[in-house]
Design brief:
274 residues; alpha+beta; Helix Hairpins; SH3 type barrels; Alpha-Beta Plaits; 3 domains; four-stranded antiparallel beta sheet; 9 strands; elongated
Length: 274
């Protein structure tokens, strides 16, 4: 085969290849811009509709992967690669990956379940068997919590969807329960009055008529006084700390003794002689 014949054969193929590569690059740049525009539009729609932040982020991630998969498929088609063969290979790969990543797939299913059932949402403070914190993100595979001391806990969605979760902030009001011990010879009514005054002086108190101060139990070394009140959940920790401190200070000022465990030993005189 002469050189001229080789050039005649290769020339059109090279031109076609270059043409397809250039068109593929154009598809890539244009498609990327269109995808970015579509994702921004989706974010605006979810923001205006006041959609839950977790669902909005999930939709953004899902749209990102789907749109880029479509873009990749278009580029492969433009390059002249047999798409049916590619789909066959991808299908086989998906099955193999799915079998090896069953745990991850269960986490994806758990993430979808969490977003649909909404036992909690982004911004809620939750308590789980794997840690407690504010929900920062409900992702496709993991949910991220930020603790009070600013640590980050990552919990698999599959695990989280199958465990007990306590949502601390789902209700606007919370009940605070206290327990105080006083000596048996202390002024019981005075102690109850001090506790009542301290509780009423706290910020965020609601349902004042349901506030209770009562004798809860007779202990070995003390009388246990119980108390509860309803407060705005935003004041939960502040009121908890303030009440414990203020009751102690008022008890000290009013002479209400707070006992400690003790044992009274009585000796018989006849026993002492021996």
């Amino acid at each position: 085969m002469t050189l001229e014949k080789m050039i005649d054969m290769i020339g059109p193929l090279a031109v076609t290849l270059v043409k397809n590569v250039l068109i593929s690059l154009l598809i890539w740049f244009v498609g990327k811009r269109l995808i970015n525009f579509a994702l921004k539009l989706l974010d605006k729609i979810t923001e205006r509709s006041r959609m839950d932040l977790g669902i909005a982020r999930f939709l953004h991630s899902a749209a990102y992967f789907i749109l880029y998969a479509v873009l990749a498929f278009l580029i492969v088609s433009q390059l002249g690669i047999n798409t049916s063969s590619v789909l066959t290979v991808i299908s086989a790969g998906v099955v193999a990956i799915g079998m090896s990543l069953q745990g991850s797939l269960s986490n994806v299913a758990g993430g979808i379940l969490l977003l649909l059932m909404r036992p909690f949402k982004v911004g809620d403070y939750i308590i789980t068997d794997y840690g407690s914190g504010t929900v920062q993100m409900i992702g496709i595979v993991y949910t991220t919590l930020v603790t009070i001391d600013n640590l980050v806990i990552t919990v698999p969605n599959g695990t989280l969807a199958n465990t007990t979760v306590t949502d601390v902030v789902i209700n606007d009001e919370r009940k605070l329960v206290f327990s105080f011990g006083i000596a048996y010879d202390a002024d019981l009514m005075k102690a109850k009055e001090i506790i009542r005054e301290v509780l009423l002086a706290q910020p965020g108190v609601v349902r004042r008529e349901e506030m209770k101060v009562f004798v809860n139990a007779w202990k070995d070394s003390s009388i246990e006084l119980g108390a509860w009140l309803w407060i705005d959940r935003n004041y939960y920790f502040d009121v908890t700390w303030a009440v414990n401190e203020q009751v102690k200070l008022r008890f000290d000022a009013e002479g209400i003794q707070i006992p400690y465990p003790q044992i009274d030993v009585h000796l018989d005189r006849d026993t002492q002689k021996h």
